[in-house]
Amino acid sequence: MSKRSGSTMVEKILATKSGKDKVEAGELVNAKVDLALGNDITAPVAIKEFERFGLDKVFDPGKIVLVPDHFTPNKDIAAAEQVMVLRRFAKRYGIKHYYEVGRMGIEHALLPEQGLVGPGMVIIGADSHTCTYGAVGAFATGVGSTDLAAAMAIGEAWFKVPQTILFEYDGILPKWVSGKDLILYTIGQIGVEGARYMAMEFTGSAIDDLSMDGRLTMANMAIEAGGKCGYVQPDKVTFSYLKGRAKKPYTPVYSDKDANYIKVIQYDVNLLEPQIAFPPSPDNVRPVSQAGGIKIDQVVIGSCTNGRIEDLRMAARVIKDKKVSPKVRLLVIPATQLIYRQALEEGLLTTFIDAEAAVSTPTCGPCLGGHMGILASGEKALSTTNRNFIGRMGHPESEVYLCNPAVAAASAVAGEIVHPEEVM
Amino acid sequence: MILEGKIWIFGDNIDTDAIIAARYLSTTVPEELAAHLMEDIKPDFPDLVKPGDIIIAGNNFGCGSSREHAPLAIKGAGVSCVIARSFARIFYRNAINIGLPILECTDDLSFMVSGRDKLQVNLEQGLITHLQSGRTFQAAPFPPFMQELIRQGGLVEYVKSRLGKKVS
Ligand code: SF4
């Protein structure tokens, strides 16, 4: 057998951006950053570090994005002060992409939607779910606040070139099964450390057929498997998504046929059921048929994982002309202003409100137990978000189950975790 | 850069709580954190560890929370280098960013005697020499800019000097 001497997409991007012909997994490189992101929790720390450099300008005011999304609209005085730090910094340094309440959205839904991320880019964010942008063929990963400060100053960041696992999903997704189920299933199989340090490349016929919204959901949760990034190679779906949206020209980068993957994992998805991650870990995954009868107090449909228009459409389709169980509170949080508006125009919000759900302006809110839907002790939530650690949505003795938007909507009606077909 | 020091061996999955317990996080002064380094898993360690010493560990060193205090505590104790089979990703970044040299070496180093044996480490080459036996082991070497980063004492200092060079 000939030696596999090709490169993966991530290796190629990192080589180009660090001025090299080729890089190997394990190598450390210093790469140019095309976009650096911070939010209302992490950016204030980075801004404090940045000020230690004594600079009167950032490396490029067009390549920094600041999104107050976690505790906004300001949850309390502390949150208001933190956002003030971002707002002042943005004004002082002329940051082009600062998104105020009323124009904002959850960062990882907002950046793709606004066409700020594209193939071949290197993107860092002081937020672990920065890995989301791999869905459009970028190398994107979460870093610390010190990294963000440095990148804002010199426009570079260092990386250890990750090894890559190739995940191949073959077959046709059954009804009510989505990108969320593919990634939950995968994390359940390989565990929360299954891809530690590594890049996860998603491929196969099921991925070819998957919408951009579904791909964003998958890449978003690469971190829940310990991954450094998750990505899909650019294809027709990518290009049509970027058409009329991408703010800048881009150069697609592809993995070589003989790329050196550390592992290839294949899944047949023809019989895949909707998946549920049980508390307290995203790898504690079971098919919905084994989750029956779990009574729930709150259902959340939203977040950077599943707050996009396709998610809201799926949930609305299930819940149309039905009512949320009197024992359940259903919260629907469109991830960005644009999605909010689109959902309004399509009548989805009316569907949710008729079903007696609470619909809110975009925010991370309950996803990280911030505000807008905190759980009391002993309560159980079913949520389309990405983490279900102990106390993630409120009291340490509350519990969070993770699922796709169709299961969430159906379960809100049933009052317990059910397959969508059970309420249709 | 050549380092030389006595070794201390730890096992797999040493998490950031074990490295520095949450109750000490009210400070970020490395020396103050160092007074409690590994306290919960090896209570006499803060007294035993001396500047220049080297920590050896198994898989997934630094897992758990992303607190930057963990590498700071190790650096504050004067530990010159950490060698592990693997590091948790954010610990790895944080360590480099604060200027703590760390090396990944998949060879089995557990035959060495903790608290007695000495290693010599060549960071440029990633070459690890067990001084008692003369046996050598290979870790991934540091590229020049990473050595520069470590030499400068971390990312903030590195960026400062880069900016200084640009201006002058
Ligand atoms: S929605 Fe949740 S996971 Fe996503 S950025 Fe906000 S807090 Fe983080």
Throw out a few tags for this protein.
heterodimer; A: 424 residues; alpha/beta; Aconitase, domain 3; 2 domains; 5-stranded parallel beta sheet; 29% helix; B: 168 residues; 7-stranded mixed beta sheet; 7 helices; globular; binds iron/sulfur cluster
Give structural notes:
The complex is a heterodimer of chains A (424) and B (168). With 424 residues, chain A is α/β, with parallel strands linked by helices. Helix content of chain A is 29%, strand content 17%. Chain A is built from 14 helices and 18 strands. Chain A has helices spanning 9-17, 43-51, 77-92, 107-113, 145-154, 179-190, 205-208, 212-220, 236-242, 303-306, 309-319, 337-345, 348-354, 405-414, and strands spanning 28-32, 35-39, 64-67, 97-98, 122-125, 139-142, 156-160, 164-170, 199-203, 229-231, 263-268, 275-277, 285-287, 298-301, 329-332, 358-359, 380-383, 399-402. The model of chain A has no long low-confidence stretch (mean pLDDT 95). Chain B is α/β, with parallel strands linked by helices and 168 residues long. Chain B has 7 helices and 7 strands; from the N terminus they run E-H-H-H-E-H-E-H-E-E-E-E-H-H. Chain B is globular and about 40 Å long. The structure holds iron/sulfur cluster (SF4).
